[in-house]
Amino acid sequence: FGGDFDTPADYLDPFIKTRLQQAENWAIYPPNPYGPRTINYFAKEPNPSAPSRDNLLGSDDRGRDLLAQLIYGFRLSVLFGLALTVVGVLLGVVTGALQGYAGGKTDLVSQRFIEIWGSMPELYLLIIFSAVFAPSVGLLLFLLSLFGWMGLSDYVRAEFLRNRQLDYVRAARALGVSHLKIMWRHILPNSMTPVVTFLPFRMSAAILALTSLDFLGLGVPPGTPSLGELLSQGKANIDAWWISMFTFAVLVITLLLLTFMGDALRDALDPRKMAT
User: Fold this and answer.
1) Which of 87, 122, 191, 211 could form a disulfide with 145 if both were Cys (CB 3.0 to 4.6 A apart)?
2) Class of domain 76-270
3) What is the CA radius of gyration of the chain?
4) What confidence score (pLDDT) does residue 78 get?
5) pLDDT value at residue 51
């Protein structure tokens, strides 16, 4: 814009807006011109402001656009839930497969360890680690991954205990097939229906866990766009109805879509329906 310094322009500044209105200047904007951390210092109303032409869904108590907060908060929730689900599935499938296939003392000792580990107070541990370490998405993912695999492990263990006694497994053993190949190529594909059924509910639980911890102030670092932080703002600003309503709507729709997708995936991969 003819300035003396090579610095990025603030397109929300009234001076820059005036320069853009000139014939020789132009700019391409996205549908929502605000970022998740963009603060509108030139708002016409005090924050949090109601939905308007400038902020389609309103703004939060810091002057940030609510639509941008919801978009980036939704992205963070889905990516976090997907990552936590993948880690939980890997740990749960490996642990449950080893327990169910080996049986005996291996299964007995592993089950006692899982029962002891599952009885530990997860919330208290999260509070302690949040007080000792700086909050981050990676730390939260690591802590929740320590407890997020035990439910799936029980499903896989039960399927392996049932399938290892079937005729096709005995035939594979008689032919000299290795134990690892029997587990990977024969038993696991026939045990995937409970795993697939478990996935959408695990992802929904991960999103709810992240939202709850953010609401309590134990989740992602301050300033990071998240649905839980927006719900906390809605609680602190009761008169700003748009913050709570739009955030709650995004959360409910996300969980419903995940459940419907999981049901459709379960029906599509059900071997009993494929056979008919």
Assistant:
1) 87
2) mainly alpha
3) 25
4) 92
5) 84
